[in-house]
Design brief:
Thrombin, subunit H, 2 domains, 157 residues, 8% helix, Chitinase A, domain 3, mainly beta, 2 helices, elongated, 4-stranded antiparallel β-sheet
Length: 157
């Protein structure tokens, strides 16, 4: 069986940046389960997994355009320090805006704080080492809900 639309695949992966720094990995955890072809994963990952078989081991390089997007300067904003009230603000802190977006503090000035609304991996080339552990058909319910159910998947309570 090959990975194709509406197949559930289980993969182990390690994600590194171009400097070789590990950003994320499934090592030591359950494999990642997803339904292929419906946007569960970033586009470059879905494309790279299409047609793969159980036991395949391979590397994928995903461009920002097919990953978490290109960095947009429009999403970098300066906010008056007073907007944060009395809390201590440090570089790297993350806040959720009123619109539900997550912003990261990139610079702390005396009167202004610079926040970046880009995804932390926007503009980053992503390097995935992948091993395909298993492939099966998705159930009608999983396809209807848009995610995997059962062990390693989404649980409804």
């Amino acid at each position: 069986m090959q990975i194709s639309k509406h197949k559930v695949a289980a993969i182990h992966y390690t994600l590194t940046d171009n400097e070789g720094k590990v950003i994320d990995s499934s090592a030591g955890r359950e494999p990642l389960l997803f339904i292929q072809g419906i946007g569960n994963l970033i586009p470059g990952m879905e494309e790279g997994l299409e047609g793969r078989k159980t036991g395949d081991k391979f590397s994928l390089k995903v461009s920002p355009e097919k990953g978490y997007g290109v960095k947009s300067e429009d999403l970098v904003q300066r906010v008056p320090r007073s907007a944060f009230g009395d809390q201590k603000i440090e570089k790297g802190m993350q806040f959720q805006t009123n619109h539900g977006h997550v912003v990261t503090v990139t610079n702390v000035g005396l009167s202004e704080i610079t926040v970046d609304g880009n995804h932390p991996l926007a503009g980053v080339e992503l390097n995935f080492d992948v091993e395909v552990m298993s492939i099966r058909e998705a159930s009608e319910e999983e396809i209807a809900h848009g995610h995997v159910h059962g062990p390693g998947g989404h649980h409804h309570h």
